[in-house]
Design goal:
The complex is a heterodimer.
Chain A (H helix, E strand, L loop, with lengths): L11 E4 L5 E6 L5 E8 L13 H9 L8 H9 L4 E6 L4 E8 L3 H13 L5 H18 L3 H14 L12 H5 L3 H11 L5 E7 L3 H12 L24 E5 L5 E9 L9 H11 L5 H8 L7 E8 L2 E11 L3 H18 L3 H14 L7 H13 L6 H10 L3 H11 L6 E6 L1 H4 L9 E5 H4 L1
Parallel strand pairs in A: 2-6, 7-11, 7-12
Antiparallel strand pairs in A: 1-2, 3-5, 3-6, 4-5, 8-10, 8-11, 9-10
Chain B lengths: L12 E4 L5 E6 L5 E8 L13 H8 L11 H8 L2 E7 L4 E8 L3 H14 L4 H20 L2 H13 L13 H6 L2 H11 L5 E7 L3 H12 L22 E8 L4 E7 L8 H12 L5 H9 L5 E6 L7 E7 L6 H17 L4 H17 L4 H15 L4 H11 L2 H11 L5 E9 L3
Parallel strand pairs in B: 2-6, 7-11
Antiparallel strand pairs in B: 1-2, 3-5, 3-6, 4-5, 8-10, 8-11, 9-10
Helix pairs in contact in B: 1-4, 3-8, 9-12, 9-15, 11-15
Classes of the chains: A alpha+beta, B alpha+beta.
Chain lengths: 442, 424
């Protein structure tokens, strides 16, 4: 493994008096800048019965401030070649602007205006909610969306990670202006925020602009919402089949909760996942695609989040092969769990992760995103600089232990979206099979 | 005010080997990685009925072993060196792409040259990849509403030209492609003189060029492939289709037959695309989504192609919406673009966004190589990357209106509407 040093741009980090964390990263390769306001608040703070509130709040933030309409705001950013994106996940909400760096001051002022003084216009709320409802309805047509959402529910149950951040038709329809305003007041503020600015900037000047735009920001929580520990997976050892008669291919997901040690303790599990299904030469790809031609795509993914991690295998195959495919996957998981990766597999996985890591530090946006992850997950300050050497230091014994612990500690949850009348009976040996129609499910 | 961004230089070194392989080197030592694009000038437009999808199936076969590196070795060796590979096929070209730690350069060139020199198409591998591609078709087309609609639109918009055929192929053609077809395809199109190699990243050009000559220099040149056929006649009137499929909400796709990517109208159409559809403040988003609430999402696609391609619009609607309302509103917007000039602010915004995108396109060596490959494939020269911003700057509102008049006409239009049926 070659660990030739990578030239990281310097990170100037401090906190404003109001608690807002700030990182300025001069990276002058192109005359552009990426800014990212990351807030530790997401759909895990949605009140019961108002699922989708964080997501709707994120969408509504850009639909007008106390000083300007949504259109004026969009034009102010886009007229100078910039773009604004706002999104949220279970544990975070992010506002991102990419733009020519010459307009840094103006863009910071706009970013501050969006997060600090939204208007929550009644008609904007009505139309934004209507669009959100239409999207939730259309998402049901996408077998991959349905199967992912169903797996989350089977793995996490009533924990916030079991719910979809976009909410349901019923919960989103209930959301009022007062809910959105209360969410903003209660959960979004400087003490749970990180502002990262990467690009062609002068540090002193950018720091002054940050103070002007955000120094007076007050309110919001002292800490993010408390999230309770996850219950055991309600779907463990069970098969849920969502029936759609028109499909000729099954979407398959297999998942479980994976207890990851913090920080670099998680790296052996990341390598084990790489060997299982994290690359194009992974065991799952070789077994299902290269040797058997059962699928176009198969992979596994550690969904590492602030309050817990799930491990998931995703694939699709023609309806008649559904049972065969699931058995191939379960066999591969068992074999890797029992013996861990072979020395050569582990070496190749390390080489792949280490070799391409510098590519993830080339763009302003990806540097900002990496720094945001370090903050959100409370990782060590030297995480990025020493990531490659820490990966390289994982031993085969570490990986074998991680495989034993992380890979399906209990029987996994299995979810299929497809034509049940053709194939559901193939799965009887895997556990109780429940077949539900799409209309009842989503 | 108009942007005047400093645009990073491309700094391309060109060479052509004796066997005709064109080489473009883009050195950049800022990060210890390399990015390689190998473009073969073959895609769906070179196919014929009966073997539609062979370019794409062949792209799969290209990973299945050659003389030195056998079946499964390509990706295994590459990953062991800290690399990853990818590939894609379009109607115009087939592209192989690797990212890797720069120490691996010699081996990656050896891997690429091995398969160009001596690909082996085994019957077992062909049967397996055929099944994999069938799964890909089920995933992307047969079980995906937008895939179904897109295929319907292309088939209707092109009567003659292979742009109407699906890149992934038709199921019966995927089933029927023979090993002999694949061997003939390889012999005809996978010649060094039908390819261009782009290498970007951490290397010194003289030693990289020596390594390229060592790796590819002995692969023989072959007769130039026959030109593709299929000239699309000028359409004489609107074409329409309905698709009935289980879905929650209607959708409308509208396309107009446009010019080839290399047309002098292209810069004006790019400006038009940005003014109409790129960004929240663009016309389509403002009027159809926010002001009149006729659509939930709108998008416009104008992708440069070698032959005349489509200018396409897609409208996602609310479940109870009448698709005719959104469609009529879209037609009216297109008519207005052909009648009235864009405002100076709209022109400026579109050009500024094109400029910012162009600079972002050059932020990394890999992105610069990808841009060079795209421009050279569709416009004939990578130098177009250097010229394009000046072309955008020179576009006038009158030229944009003229381009809209020429192409956004009812008789060039194809409309496909999704009529939802209940899920059963």
């Amino acid at each position: 493994v070659n660990l030739r040093p990578i030239r990281l741009p310097p990170v100037h980090a401090w906190a404003l008096g109001n608690g807002l964390n700030v990182q300025l990263v001069p990276h002058a390769r192109v005359p552009l800048v990426a800014m990212r306001m990351l807030l530790r608040a997401g759909s895990d703070a949605d009140p019961k019965g108002r699922e989708g509130l964080a997501d709707l709040t994120a969408q509504l933030l850009r639909r007008g401030t106390k000083r300007r309409s949504a259109r004026a705001l969009d034009e102010a950013i886009e007229q100078i070649g910039g773009s604004l994106g706002i999104g949220c996940g279970a544990d975070w909400l992010a506002l991102r602007i990419s733009a020519p760096s010459a307009y840094l001051d103006r863009l910071l002022a706009l970013l501050a205006e969006v997060i600090r003084s939204p208007k929550w216009d009644a008609s904007e709320l009505r139309s934004t909610r209507a669009r959100a409802l239409a999207e939730i309805a259309s998402d049901r047509d996408d077998p991959e969306w349905v199967v992912d959402r169903a797996l989350a529910r089977q793995v996490w149950g009533l924990h916030p990670y079991g719910k979809d951040g976009s909410g349901t038709l019923a919960s989103v329809a209930r959301i009022r202006r007062s809910d959105v305003a209360a969410f903003h007041e209660q959960w979004l503020g400087p003490r749970v925020g990180l502002l990262t600015i990467v690009g062609d900037i002068q540090v002193a000047r950018a720091a002054a602009a940050v103070r002007r735009a955000f120094g007076g920001w007050r309110g919001g929580p002292a800490a993010p919402v408390a999230v309770r520990a996850a219950p055991p997976s309600p779907g463990a050892g069970k098969v849920l089949w969502i029936h759609r008669k028109d499909l000729s291919q099954s979407q398959i997901r297999i998942g479980w909760q994976a207890a990851l040690p913090p920080d670099s303790g998680a790296l052996p599990a990341i390598l084990v996942n790489h060997v299982l299904g994290g690359s194009f030469v992974s065991r799952l790809v070789l077994a299902a695609r290269v040797r058997r031609g059962l699928t176009y795509g198969i992979g596994s993914h550690l969904d590492w989040r602030v309050h817990g991690t799930s491990h998931e295998v995703s694939t699709s195959t023609a309806t008649a092969q559904t049972g065969k495919m699931i058995n191939v996957i379960l066999d591969e998981i068992s074999a890797l769990k029992a013996r861990g990766p072979r020395a050569q597999e582990l070496a190749a996985a390390k080489q792949a992760i280490v070799g391409l890591y510098p590519a993830s530090l080339e763009r302003n946006e990806s540097i900002a995103s990496k720094l945001g992850d370090v903050w959100l997950f409370g990782l060590p300050g030297d995480w990025i600089e020493r990531y490659r050497e820490r990966v390289a230091a994982v031993s085969r014994a570490d990986a074998a232990r991680a495989a034993g612990r992380v890979l399906s500690p209990h029987p996994p949850a299995i979810v299929v979206v497809g034509n049940a009348s053709r194939a559901a009976r193939q799965l009887r040996a895997l556990g109780p099979v429940k077949v539900v129609p799409l209309t009842e499910y989503a | 005010m108009p942007l005047r961004l400093r645009v990073p230089r491309l700094a391309v070194r060109e060479a052509t080997l004796d066997n005709g392989l064109r080489i473009r080197l883009l050195p950049d030592e800022s990060v210890p990685i390399c990015s390689l694009y190998l473009v073969f000038r073959v895609g769906t437009r070179h196919e014929r009925p009966g073997i539609v999808g062979i370019s794409h199936l062949f792209e799969h076969m290209y990973f299945n072993g050659a003389e030195k590196y056998g079946h499964g070795e390509f990706d295994r060796v590459l990953e062991g060196l800290g690399g990853e590979s990818n590939a894609y096929t379009t109607h115009d070209e087939t592209v192989y792409h690797e990212n890797f730690a720069s120490e691996a350069l010699e081996t990656v060139l050896d891997l690429e040259a091995d398969r160009m020199r001596s690909l082996r198409i085994s019957p077992t591998a062909l049967e397996r990849e055929r099944r994999v591609v069938m799964e890909e078709r089920r995933l992307r087309v047969d079980n995906d509403v937008s895939g179904i609609l897109g295929e319907e639109l292309d088939a209707l918009a092109f009567r003659v030209h292979p742009y109407g055929w699906p890149v992934v192929g038709r199921m019966e053609d995927i089933a029927g492609i023979r090993r002999a077809d694949c061997n003939a395809f390889f012999g005809t199109y996978y010649a060094p003189n039908n390819a261009t190699l782009y290498l970007a990243g951490d290397f010194t050009p003289p030693s990289a060029l020596r390594a390229l000559r060592r790796a590819f220099g002995d692969i023989p040149k072959r007769p130039p492939p026959p030109p593709p056929h299929g000239h699309e006649p000028e359409p004489r009137g609107e074409r329409r289709a309905e698709v009935r499929h289980p879905a929650q909400a209607p959708q409308v796709l509208v396309s107009y037959l446009g010019p080839p990517g290399g047309s002098p109208d292209t810069p004006a159409l790019d400006v038009l695309q940005f003014a109409l559809s790129v960004g929240e403040s663009s016309r389509l988003v403002q009027e159809l989504v926010y002001e009149r609430e006729l659509a939930v999402n709108v998008s416009m696609d104008w992708t440069w192609r070698i032959d005349p391609g489509l200018i396409s619009f897609s409208l996602d609607l609310e479940p109870k919406a009448d698709p005719r309302n959104a469609e009529q509103a879209l037609h009216r917007l297109c008519e207005r673009a052909a009648e009235d000039l864009l405002s100076p602010r709209e022109m400026e915004r579109a050009k500024n966004n094109l400029q910012a995108m162009g600079v972002s396109e050059r932020a990394t060596a890999g992105a610069r190589a990808a841009a060079c490959a795209t421009y050279e494939s569709t416009l004939g020269s990578w130098r177009e990357v250097e010229r394009v911003q000046a072309r955008y700057a020179a576009v006038t509102a009158a030229q944009v209106r003229e381009a809209a008049r020429r192409y956004l006409r009812a008789e060039r239009r194809t409309v496909v509407t999704l009529i939802p049926e209940a899920h059963r």
